[in-house]
């Protein structure tokens, strides 16, 4: 079989897979809003309703995700690439990422962004260590998609992508 690809080569190859762009939010240990951009998200099951998001051990939001019982996943529309970039900055603190973003707390205190293509509110069911990431499998407790026809934000080969339709 041969040697495994080096991480940079693997990243470049995996970049050829078009992904959606999400912002995952939760509440930090002191009640502060915490959020990050994530494209490692997938639906796992409809019955029961389960989803999965993967977070790097090195992510600034990792400690908050490890301590959290709940998180929200926001699917972004094509005009939200600036928000996605702001939430992708690992150096920025949790509260800084929310500056200028309209949001409100859920019943459990999880930050819910006012504008997104769709949103899921989730309760963590399992944490699975997978290499340099942890997969958070969660039960969907609420799902919301505003009416209207918006274009989703994609990510392809290291850049934001718009789907034409």
Please characterize this protein's 3D structure:
- The chain has 165 residues and is α+β, with helices and mostly antiparallel strands.
- The chain has a single domain (21-146), classed as Electron Transport, Fmn-binding Protein, Chain A (Pnp Oxidase, Chain A).
- The chain is built from four helices and twelve strands.
- It has helices at 7-14, 62-67, 81-88, 94-97; strands at 19-20, 22-27, 33-38, 41-45, 50-56, 70-75, 103-105, 111-113, 118-130, 133-144, 153-156, 159-162.
- The strands form three sheets. It has a seven-stranded antiparallel β-sheet.
Write the layout of secondary structure elements.
Elements: H1 7-14, E1 19-20, E2 22-27, E3 33-38, E4 41-45, E5 50-56, H2 62-67, E6 70-75, H3 81-88, H4 94-97, E7 103-105, E8 111-113, E9 118-130, E10 133-144, E11 153-156, E12 159-162
Antiparallel strand pairs: 1-11, 2-3, 2-6, 4-5, 5-10, 6-9, 7-8, 9-10, 11-12
Task: From the structure above, extract its key features.
alpha+beta, three-stranded antiparallel beta sheet, 16% helix, 165 residues, Pnp Oxidase, Chain A, seven-stranded antiparallel beta sheet, 4 helices, single chain
- Structural class, by secondary structure, is alpha+beta
* Strand composition percent: 35-45%
| Rg result | 16 Å
Question: What is the N-to-C succession of helices and strands?
Answer: HEEEEEHEHHEEEEEE
Largest pleated sheet: 7 strands, antiparallel
Mean pLDDT: 90
CATH level-1 class: Mainly Beta
End-to-end CA span:
41 Å
CATH topology title: Pnp Oxidase, Chain A
Number of strands: 12
């Amino acid at each position: 079989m041969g040697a495994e690809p080096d991480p940079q080569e693997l990243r470049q190859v995996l970049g050829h897979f078009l992904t959606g762009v999400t912002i995952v939010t939760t509440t930090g240990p002191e009640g502060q809003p915490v959020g990050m951009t994530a494209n490692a998200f997938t639906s796992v099951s409809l019955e029961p309703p389960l989803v999965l998001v993967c977070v790097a051990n090195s992510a600034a939001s990792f400690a908050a995700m490890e301590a959290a019982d709940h998180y929200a996943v926001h699917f972004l529309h094509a005009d939200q690439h600036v928000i996605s970039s702001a939430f992708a900055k690992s150096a920025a603190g949790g509260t800084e990422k929310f500056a200028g973003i309209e949001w409100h707390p859920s019943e459990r205190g999880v930050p819910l962004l006012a504008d997104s293509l769709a949103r899921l509110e989730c309760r963590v069911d399992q944490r699975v260590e997978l290499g340099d990431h942890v997969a958070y499998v969660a039960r969907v407790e609420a799902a919301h998609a505003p009416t209207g026809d918006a274009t989703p934000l994609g990510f392809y080969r290291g850049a934001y992508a718009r789907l034409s339709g």
